[in-house]
Design brief:
The protein has 157 residues and is an alpha+beta fold. The chain contains three helices and ten strands; from the N terminus they run ββαβββββαβββα. It has a four-stranded mixed beta sheet, covered by helices on one side. Strands 4, 5, 6 and 10 form a four-stranded antiparallel beta sheet that branches. It is globular. The protein starts with a strand and ends in an 8-residue tail after the last helix.
Length: 157
């Protein structure tokens, strides 16, 4: 997994640990759902923070949750599915002057029950990985999206 920023590029990160919670890093998990070679993305509601930006479904890890537990909960809330959260695909740390650092964890979704519904999104779409760069993604997802579009990430076993 990698940590990326504009100044230094990408460097390897150690595995997830609880110490991130202690230094006020906000941990955010995202699920990468696939179907027939396409990935599921969601567009934030217009009235939400970063309205109409695209993202992979997921959200914040709450105190007492593991990242996988948080992601399963978030997918239940956002898409009305029961997901089996798989391996971690990528991780990035993102820091800005205006907020606490974020640790973004991207996990494959091995399987799920139910049909995804855009409960908390303006819309959801199944899209070819190479076309993701055409969407206006959240800043935290941009490097992941570029790597997907370039075929530089192994998504599924």
């Amino acid at each position: 997994m990698f940590q990326c920023n504009r100044e230094t590029g990408c460097t390897a990160l150690p595995p997830f640990s609880a110490s991130h919670l202690m230094n006020r890093t906000l941990i955010v998990v995202a699920g990468v759902l696939h179907r027939e070679g396409k990935l599921l993305i969601g567009q934030r509601m217009a009235a939400d923070r970063h309205g109409l930006k695209w993202e992979f479904p997921g959200g914040k890890v709450e105190i007492g949750e593991s990242p996988k537990e948080a992601l399963a909960r978030e997918l239940r809330e956002e898409l009305a599915i029961e997901a089996v959260v798989g391996r971690e695909i990528a991780r990035y740390e993102q820091a800005t002057r205006r907020r606490s650092p974020l640790l973004l964890l991207f996990h494959s979704i091995d399987s799920y029950a139910g049909e995804p519904q855009g409960i908390t999104f303006e819309q959801i779409r199944w899209e070819d990985p190479a076309r993701l760069v055409e969407y206006d993604f959240l800043d935290g997802d941009l490097d992941f999206v570029r790597r997907l579009a370039q075929g530089r990430l192994r998504l599924f076993d």
